[in-house]
Amino acid sequence: MEQARFSGRRFLLITVLNVTITIFELLGGIVSGSLALISDALHNLSDSFSVILSYIAHRIGMRSPTPKNTYGYQRAEIIAALLNSLILVFLSVYLLIEAIKRIMQPEQVSGGVMFWTALISFAANLFATILLSRDSKHNLNLRATYLHLLSDALASVGVIIGSLLIFFFKISWVDPVVTILVSLYIAYEAWPIIRQTLMILMEGSPAIDPTEVKNTIMTIPSVRGVHHFHTWLINENELVASVHVNLANQSLRETELIYSQIEELLQKKYKIMHVTIQAECTRGLKDKMCFSKDDEKQQH
Question: The whole model's pTM is what?
């Protein structure tokens, strides 16, 4: 519980930081005429929403399983990670369109105001990123929020460089070019999270070879066959599976011992945290590891 309260304080601090940066950059962008600053402010605004959504999902994910949700509520964080990443992509597209418009119709930009605004924003973004860096390593939801904050810090670096070029060399087109580069980078970094969250929500199987799993289980002397293997992720860390095994006609006590061996093998080699095993004598002995309804129809 203490960890949850501490996380809550950090989330609140990050949210306050982002709202403050958003207002500060919007004002700086309007005064300086910098699209890069205004785009960074909009990105920070999306960060505030991202942090709030991430925290709500994190709290929901900590709830215990119920008879109605037997696997718990951990998918809430996966959904939040997907939403946050999609927001990043949509924001990137919007900024690209605005930057192209600015290239076609250049506007005067004040490099000095742009520089100091971006420098202060960078320091605040960097601090927020550090606050979330440790927790982001083992949680896809927090990683998506961390990516929001990290991309903002990098965006601020781009704006700082752009402001120096504008101030010393008077080349205003640098401002929309920086915006384009930052937008492309944000979309590029968001895509792997979108792909991974969709895979989890679609109950896709991680990179585990079913044939290798079968050979691993078949090393147990009492196992005569393995089929109907399914594996999926509850979240990015918790892998579960189900499998049918063919055993001799034996006592339940003997079967339980084999179950324990299978569970130990799968957890040790494939990090499968929970496996449901169904024992059979000859039924399904010739079935495939990945069984489908089409296979069932062909048998009849």
Answer: 0.72
